[in-house]
Amino acid sequence: MKSIKVGLLGIGTVGAGTFNVLKRNQEEISRRAGRGIEIVMVADLDVARAKELVGAQCEVVNDGNLVVNNPDIDIVIELIGGYGIAKDLVLKAIANGKHVVTANKALLAIHGDEIFKAAQAKGVMVAYEAAVAGGIPIIKALREGLTANRIEWIAGIINGTTNFILSEMRDKGLDFDTVLKEAQRLGYAEADPTFDIEGVDAAHKATLMAAIAFGIPVQFGKAHVEGITKLEAVDIRYAEQLGYRIKLLGIAKRTPHGIELRVHPTLIPAKRLIANVEGAMNAVLVQGDAVGATLYYGKGAGAEPTASAVIADLVDITRLADAQPAHRVPHLAFQPHSMTDTPILPISEVTTSYYLRMHVADKLGVLANVTSILAESTISIDAMLQKEPALGETQTDIIMLTHQTQEKNVEAAIKKIEALPTVLGKVTKIRLEHLS
Ligand code: NDP
Ligand code: HSE
């Protein structure tokens, strides 16, 4: 059978990885796909570098339009990134009746509904396994493997760069900027690394997972997003002393009132498997009503791990290219007419546990004042750590872990605690999840 023809937009980290893995494992891949998969055209701004990477075997151009308008091409892989030219080219490819594979979570988290609608109307597939958790087949698991389940919640370490930074800072005592530079050198970070460190990239991925887990539209704008830039080393240390690790988690949770969609540093019990996911590794924990908890672990970033997911999509599309559109897996797992508009809850309505650290004057009654404010706010304390003041010091830290409560309760209590004359400065609040 004639091989399927592929056009590649962008041959940077993931593009080069995809080209190389496809070439190296060509035979194995076509035995699985049922026919050859051939990249016949590559578009990149740096034509000379691209030619060096692909050799003489395929055409290299500097304009992606030549790829998406090429009538010989069946599948377009978009690996440029961002929502500018990438969106334009993806929509043009769809309009030209081509299937699309993309790793671009930013594009899909913002414009996914428009892109999937266009693809649906045209009867083509848009596959995006590489957009969430790099090489881990989490989209496949959520859309297909867990299809019998009512998904209750998902919690994941879904940004390799920030997990790498947290691990290296903790284990090697390196500073933030040094580790971020190393993550960039290794090809983990986004073109704009603030997307990684401010939690935006993880929120893009959590948004996509929430959509396919709960059958809701893609709503990045409603996600609560916090990164790791405000996290202090002292809290990582205190968390460890209390038996917890701090990880940047992406969380999507079904509640009776709506859906929680949030990304923030989170304390997790150190004994959980996911708390021990280090470096650029990712892990996603999914709780389904029938299967219980399942955990997916692997490399969340980098050239070949991400290429693994891109090529899995190429194979899926190759197998299904001639199938009736209605027989394919829906883009967001649920049939388009069966999506619901379950609301995404504002962060003030979220219910979870909290780590609170306050710096206090070491005076009689300070602890009693704090605990009575918490009691008045119906917040119960799960654990507490009071540090001895250093020699000659008259101030110290108190750390409290609370049981579950609503965010707005905690915020109101913190305001009162900060107003106490014995509490010095701001209270540090970090959310805590037991993931049990
Ligand atoms: P890179 O920046 O390494 O690669 C992007 C490539 O696209 C570069 O070669 C760039 O050329 C080229 N490019 C830019 N503009 C155009 C254009 N107008 N036409 C053609 N080519 C263009 O990014 P990555 O490979 O790291 O990421 C690609 C996508 O994959 C992104 O959406 C990213 O979020 C996603 N992703 C990345 C992962 C990773 O580990 N890196 C993991 C999972 C997803 P030039 O360099 O000359 O500007
Ligand atoms: N910048 C992303 C990360 C790449 O660090 O996880 C993978 O999506």
What do you see in this structure?
The protein has 436 residues and is of the alpha/beta class. It has three domains: 168 residues, NAD(P)-binding Rossmann-like Domain (Rossmann fold), CATH 3.40.50; 147 residues, 2-Layer Sandwich (Dihydrodipicolinate Reductase, domain 2); 86 residues, ACT domain (Alpha-Beta Plaits, 2-Layer Sandwich), CATH 3.30.70. It has 15 helices and 17 strands. Strands 7, 8, 9, 10, 11, 12, 13, 14, 15, 16 and 17 form an eleven-stranded mixed beta sheet that branches. A six-stranded parallel beta sheet has the order 3-2-1-4-5-6, sandwiched between helices. The radius of gyration is 24 Å and the shape is elongated. The N and C termini lie far apart (50 Å). The model has no long low-confidence stretch (mean pLDDT 96). NADPH dihydro-nicotinamide-adenine-dinucleotide phosphate binds next to α1. InterPro entries: ACT-like_dom_sf (IPR045865), ACT_dom (IPR002912), Asp/hSer_DH_NAD-bd (IPR005106), HDH (IPR016204), HDH_cat (IPR001342), HDH_CS (IPR019811), NAD(P)-bd_dom_sf (IPR036291). Belongs to the homoserine dehydrogenase family.
Question: Which key features would you list for this structure?
Answer:
alpha/beta, Rossmann fold, Dihydrodipicolinate Reductase, domain 2, Alpha-Beta Plaits, eleven-stranded mixed sheet, six-stranded parallel sheet, 15 helices, 17 strands, binds NADPH dihydro-nicotinamide-adenine-dinucleotide phosphate
